[in-house]
Amino acid sequence: MEPHNLKQRGRQAYGGPETLVVVNDEYDDKSAPGAEFGSYPSRVPGTKGKTYGAYPALAVDARDAVCDPTDFAAVSLDAGVEGMLRSRDFVITAVLTLASLVTRLYWIGRRKAVSWDEAHFGKFGAFYVRGQWFHDVHPPLGRMLVALAEYVAGHNGTYEFKSGSAFPDYVNYRFIRMQVSLYGIALVPLAYLTCLQLNMSRTMATLAACFILFDNALCVMSRFILLDEPLLFFTAMTLWSAVSFQRVSKYGRQFSRRWWIWLLMTGVSLGCVMSSKWIGLFSVIMIGIATVDDLFRKFCDRMPWEDLAQHWNARVVSLIFLPLIVYTACFWVHFRLLYRTGAGEHKLSADFQAKLIGSRLNAQPFDISYGTAAEIRSLYDGPGLLHSHVHRYPDGSHLQQMTCFPHRDVNNRWILRHGGDKGVSTNYTVAPIELLTDGDVIQLVHNKTGAVVQTGKRFLAPLTTSHFEVSAANETDWDKGSRDWRVEVVKQKYKKRNRKRVHAMTTVFRLRHVETGCLMRVGSQHLPTW
User: Fold this and answer.
1) Digit-coded pLDDT (tens) for 497-510
2) Residue by residue, what is the 3-state secondary structure of 241-254?
């Protein structure tokens, strides 16, 4: 057989459907004629005397088989040994994992008291176990994994994880810590596998894994109930998946099963790292920069527009939509698990609070009657509830301040009574029940101080001087403004009910001052420290 030059057909650089894969069979590299034509630079361990070259050759359609150098790096079989489970990489990974188990689990229960941030994250896990609502700045995935560890360990959610307190006998804190430490244990083998995908030798990959293995900070964090272990685990998974995808994308066939698996794993890992802590956004930035660089290089290499569009679509679906789906799903599970009333629920809408078991909002009457002590919330959740206190304005009317307050407080409650002299003379404890309807003229009496909300054209607002000041006045100051407000219904959430009546939480209304015709509104600026 005479040596001849094999020409590639189709788009080999991007793994097109007509790419030829050429494999030498049994010829020695020193004696085989024409072995220099397209010979592969590296030799597979355990195949002495064999090269991957261009002659003699077997042409295989790329849709059926692909010669992928990553396969050789992953298997790395010793001479005479067959099977991935007996490969040297598997042995090294197993030894590193075993060493990681020892360094993370040895005497993990020696500290028998709540330590460091266990007081926070252990308590959050207990909230999940008993289904009690709480508010925290971090996304929910890391806390839910801690809750899973507590649930598996048999914790009933009653222990509060007070800082420095000893764990009671009914809390299996050792088992809880062991489950959380598994995320830290996995960092060591992931470091080794990632370094292999970065074309490092086994020696350097093992050295890098040992850095993670014996790092004091990582060892300590992995021995307590913290969110750092899940965060670092998902960060390591993101890096390993992204590096593996880039390697397959460079050497393997585009849009193959392995190509999709690594890309989707990268997207899922990104969603998990974002759902653990906000600092996980840095991983998103890292993958985003690498993705943009990869696509830009393909564009500079004049990849056909059809193929480039497919790559863009794959990245958008896998690295944008998929992480967002994972992130949203974590919050969906979070809201499903927390179904009882608890601390921090006031930060959410009244409709949400009313759906929590035990909330005081789901036990109130639907219709509002005169003489009721009510809380009036701004249409926008940010400003909060209508609020007043004994402090007075330093300028203007020098009357009691009127503000909005986002938290629960006794100063948020107002008595609804009739406008004019009727509201002053009526004893609502014995008077017949009269419901509040659209167009009624009312007065708002502060439940704590007895002051009545009023306004007028005599005084301007302290900050927004284009508006008039709203204040609360006692009986001795009633000559400084008018106290009557007209209720104007704007929207009813449940239209099948009486549209004229004002309903709890479902009616959007506004208050118009009778004398001036001005509407009460929430200012966009915070009052000064006075």
Assistant:
1) 777 899 888 889 99
2) HHHHHHHHHHHCCC
User: In angstroms, rounded to a whole number, what is the distance separating the alpha carbons of residues 411 and 21?
Assistant: 79
Following DSSP, what letter does each residue of 148-181 receive, concatenated? HHHHHTT--S-----TTPBPPTT--HHHHHHHHH
CA distance linking residue 502 with residue 169, whole number of Å = 53
pTM (two decimals): 0.73
Instruction: Determine what percent of the chain falls in helix, strand and coil, rounding each to the nearest 5.
Output: 40, 15, 45
Q: Which amino acid is at 269?
A: S
Burial string for 433-455 (b: 16+ CB within 10 Å, else e) reads: eebbebebebbbbbbeeebbbbb
Question: Is the model's pLDDT at 281 over the cut of 70?
Answer: yes
- For the chain, how big is the Rg over CA atoms in Å? 35
Asked whether the beta carbons of 435 and 499 are under 8 A apart, the reply is: no
**Who has greater pLDDT, 225 or 55?**
225
Strand partners, 501: 437
Q: Give the separation between CA 437 and CA 502, rounded to whole angstroms.
A: 5
pLDDT digits (tens, 9 = 90+) for 160-191: 999 999 999 999 999 999 999 999 999 999 99
Print burial letters for 178-187: b (CB count within 10 Å at least 16), e (below 16): bbbbbbbbbb
Long-range residue pairs from 45-52, CB within 8 A, at least 24 positions apart, any chain: 45/76, 45/77, 45/78, 45/79, 46/77, 46/78, 46/79, 46/80, 46/81, 48/79, 50/24, 50/25, 50/26, 51/24, 51/27, 52/22, 52/23, 52/24
DSSP assigned state of 318: I
At 337, phi and psi to the nearest 5?
A: -75, -30
- In Å, what is the CA distance from 185 to each residue of 65, 215, 251, 284? 36, 12, 31, 23
- Convert the pLDDT of each residue in 463-482 to its tens digit: 888 889 999 988 766 665 68
